[in-house]
Amino acid sequence: MANSPHGGILKDLYIRDEPIQATLQAEAETLPYVTLTERQLCDLELILNGGFSPLEGFLTEAEYTSVVENLRLPDGTLWAIPIYLDVDRAQLDKLGVSVGSRLTLRDPRDDQPLAILTVSDLYQPSRETEAIKVYGANDQAHPAVHYLYHNTRDTYVGGKLQAVNAPQHYDYVAIRRSPSEVRGLFKKLNWTRVVAFQTRNPMHRAHRELTVRAARMRHANVLIQPVVGLTKPGDIDHFTRVRVYQAIMPKYPNGMAQLSLLPLAMRMGGPREAVWHAIIRKNFGATHFIVGRDHAGPGKNSQGEDFYGPYEAQDLVLKYKDELDIEVVPFQMLTYLPDTDEYMPVNEVPEGTKTLNISGTELRRRLKTGAPIPEWFSYPEVVKILREANPPRDKQGFTVFLTGLHASGKEAIARALQVALNQEGGRSVSLLLGETIRQELSSELGFTKRERDINVARIGFVASELTRSGAACIAAPIAPYKEARQLVRQQVSKAGGFYLVHVATPLEACIKNDRAGVYQRAINGEIKGFTGIDDTYEAPDNADLVTDVTKTSISQIVHEIILLLERDGYIGDR
After folding, report:
1. 561: enclosing H helix or E strand
2. What pLDDT is stored for residue 137 in this prediction?
3. What is the pLDDT, as a whole number, of residue 112?
4. What is the distance of C-alpha 445 from the center of its chain?
5. Pairwise CA distance, residues 276 & 305, whole Å
6. Could you tell me where the DSSP H helices lie in 320-448?
7. How far apart, in whole angstroms, are the C-alpha atoms of residue 164 and residue 438?
8. 462: left (phi > 0), else alpha (psi -120 to 50), else beta?
9. What is the side-by-side strand order in the sheet with 472-476?
10. Nearest-angstrom CA–CA distance, 175 and 153
């Protein structure tokens, strides 16, 4: 029999409101609306389907304060993470929203109405208090605290919800299950003891061993329930992770385990988050929950120290075990013993025994360089999926972004570099010259700072997409402003390599090289706002290469760029 929900009743608002769904749908089209953020969308789905039982809406100020200060709702029910709807006050005023208003909440992906909120509270909390009380420190190195200060709007809207439509998903639909559906699955399979496993990372042999050990210890089946909502910035995308989970499921004995996805927006809140995760798994019907080392930990703080102790999450969950009414299965980190070909918790390894382990950092290095990943660490099927998603550097894309004054020689360098990379082979090479982009993508733009920044942003977008597809992109705009160049670096770096080359040819030489006489027209006042004459060029202070065509030949400059690419493994056979 599945575990009873937190608070005693599964608050599945889809089932509750199904008889009046058509009426709610019609009303939703007439109401003022708020388009949800990605995190709010995750939270809403789990409120509506009962994953956040006993919640039936976003927290009011009294509920929020009680959760932040005491880990409890006002009625005394244990609840660890504040769930709120944050909206800009200016938007609320524009919509005329006040206490008693009804508000449609819309999906940011397709604009469909998902729920109607009856507003019972509007309040402005203390971000500092929330950061310290919930996450343990007012430190923006913590991803949730950073989100709090940079993404959370100024006003929280509390109130009860009515379900209109479920969010529409197009990926892995067969294994996206609500608490009611998971409970129904347990009943169909005659599972009465279920240990749930939370993960936001790919699973390897150690994870399979850990979950099987937990099942063996508790005479239970296993629910693998990975997070596919928001996780820690920099985590592997959920498409890759789910393919890994699907590949590892046949490694369990037949009938032992099931895979079901959880659309949770994690906060990386360590101990509090572990309590929250236990409540959620209880709502899904699990009777046991694995809490491992550094559960939901965000990593290092701004002083370079761990935000939480390695087993602090286990301690807090065990503190509330009687109220949670879900048995916690605490685990130490597992390590591999090559002499006996087995995994064992580190605290059980006999002194002097040889052990092996591969850290996350080392795994990423091996994926990046193509170095072998041993079968004792992961399954070949899993490694194949991870290599496809994380190809080695010589299969990744990159952008070389040349910036400098007009007629500085950057276009000649770009064309010569294109020839050199085409000669190298292995990937397509695209050339984005400043004048070409102006004609093809930005013909409506002028030359104000704002319009120049828009033009550079468009170049950055195209470059990032080419880089993501594995191509080599060479961009050669003037790009006179530091901030715009930095934004391009950040955008492209998420997709692959980025190299900023400052072609620092002196203005006098640029004027001499300007066969079209554009500089002279600017000097004569015929052209206004011309970079280097009456508009600023902000020289980069973070260029990967600084060069000058009056001192270095084009071929030598291209060679130096090639050496940068070879150094980092983008070209050449290592």
Report:
1. helix 554-567
2. 96
3. 97
4. 33
5. 24
6. 321-324, 360-369, 380-389, 410-424, 434-440
7. 46
8. alpha
9. 429-433, 472-476, 398-403, 497-503, 545-547
10. 33
Question: What residues contact 475, with CB distance under 8 A and at least 6 apart?
Answer: 399, 400, 401, 402, 414, 432, 459, 463
Please determine, for residue 574, whether its predicted confidence score (pLDDT) is greater than 70: no
Angle in degrees, 0-180, between the axes of helices 482-493 and 449-468, rounded to the nearest 10: 20
Strand order in the sheet with 194-199: 257-259, 221-226, 194-199, 288-291, 327-330
Q: What is the mean pLDDT of residues 418-446?
A: 89
Q: Are 43 and 115 in contact (CB under 8 A)?
A: no
Q: What is the per-residue pLDDT for 188?
A: 96
In the residue annotation, 138 being an active-site residue is answered as: no
Query: What token pair was written down for 348?
Result: 């059980």
Measured CA to CA, the distance from residue 173 to residue 39 in angstroms comes to: 20
Q: What single DSSP character describes residue 394?
A: G
Q: 138, 165, 201, 301: which one is catalytic?
A: 201
d(CA 261, CA 242): 8
Q: How many residues appear in the chain?
A: 574
Is residue 201 annotated as a catalytic residue, yes or no?
Answer: yes
**Helix (H) / strand (E) containing 474:** strand 472-476
Q: Determine the residue type at 394.
A: D
Instruction: For Cα atoms 344, 322, 256, give the angle at the middle one, nearest 5 degrees.
Output: 45
Which of 409, 374, 356 shows the shortest CA–CA distance to 553? 409
**Per-residue pLDDT tens over the stretch 270-295:** 999 999 999 999 999 999 999 988 89
Which entry of 37, 49, 60, 199 is annotated as an active-site residue?
199
Backbone angles phi, psi at 78, to 5 degrees: -65, 130
> Of 177, 200, 208, 272, which is the active-site residue?
200
Radius of gyration, CA atoms only, the chain: 28
